Every structure is written in C-alpha cells, then in structure tokens.
C-alpha cells in the first residue's frame, strides 16, 4: 500500500459526496479511483438478484450485510489497482470511518449541506429510481434511516469539513484549500 491515499467522505443523502469524488482528480492533479459501498452492493447484490437499487433497498441491504465483508472487498480492489488516490464517498458507520483511518495515508472529509438544498439536488440528479419524485417527507425518512444514524457523530470526527450550499466551483475551491493544507 505504499503511496496510496484513501479519502473517505461522510455526509447524508444528497449532500454532495459523489460530486466531491468527481472533482477530486482535478483537485489532486491525478486520477482518483472511486470505490463506493453503494456501487459494490448494486454490482454484487442488486444486479445478480434483480433487486431495484432504490435508496430504501440499498440502505436495507447495507444495513443487513456485515461491514467487514464490504471493507474486505474494497481493500481487495485497492490492492489490485495501480491508482495512487482512492475515494470512498459513502462513509456512514463507525466501522467505515475506522476502515479509512486504517490506511497510513488517509483523509476523512465531512460534507454538510442544508436539508432543502440537498433534497432539491437529489431530485434534480435523479440518480436512483424515482429520485425525481422524492417528497420532502421521504427525504427526511432517508436521512434518518438506520444506516445513517451515525453520520452526525462521524461528521464531528472528520479531518476536514466542507460546507456545500453553493456552486460546484465554490466546492472545488474549498477542496483545493483542504488539499493545500494536507499536502
């Protein structure tokens, strides 16, 4: 694992975790491999079993399977890759947090976004089935799902915090600032 840098992003639904992951290659000046717990669940559970990858289904499966299994699969992917930077934009549990911290070179970023802004962004991105039809009440249920219960506590323990209520360009500048401080 020499010269591998693992970045974990903790935040609630729609706060911009995946946007941060997409911006990182430009910020660090190198390619960054994205290793998402959700993507792993979709590829290794939902697709083979024909389960629709809705937020509810992903949260249910993520809550049901052992975190150690997910961490081992991600660790294998890191070992098999030639990339220098890895980002995990789906840190939601203490075990996930500790997993990222187990790497010698790591950074945990908390992302905070006002609820209504996160909700509107989720609806606009329409990344998961029927996300564009999501109601405010359904969004609040997602934010309070069992798998997301530890997110507020983990945000407080992160190495850096990003407020993401503005533009993508503002977010990129905040990321550059964080990396200039840790590099």
Structural topology:
Blueprint: E1 5-10, H1 17-28, E2 32-34, H2 37-49, H3 55-64, H4 67-80, E3 85-91, H5 94-101, E4 106-112, H6 115-125, H7 136-143, H8 151-157, E5 160-163, H9 168-182
Parallel strand pairs: 1-3, 1-4, 2-3, 4-5
Helix pairs in contact: 1-9
Entry keywords:
183 residues; alpha/beta; five-stranded parallel sheet; 5 strands
Overview of the structural elements:
This protein is 54% helix and 15% strand. The chain contains 9 helices and 5 strands; from the N terminus they run βαβαααβαβαααβα. The chain has helices at residues 17-28, 37-49, 55-64, 67-80, 94-101, 115-125, 136-143, 151-157, 168-182; strands at 5-10, 32-34, 85-91, 106-112, 160-163. It has a 5-stranded parallel β-sheet with strand order 2-3-1-4-5, sandwiched between helices. It is globular, with a radius of gyration of 16 Å.
Q: Characterize the biggest β-sheet.
A: 5 strands, parallel
Shape: globular
| Percent range of helical residues | 40-55%
Q: Point out poorly predicted stretches.
A: none
Strand content: 5-15%
Task: Tell me, rounded to a whole number, the average pLDDT.
Answer: 89
Cα-based radius of gyration, to the nearest Å: 16 Å
Brief account:
The chain has 183 residues and is α/β, with parallel strands linked by helices.
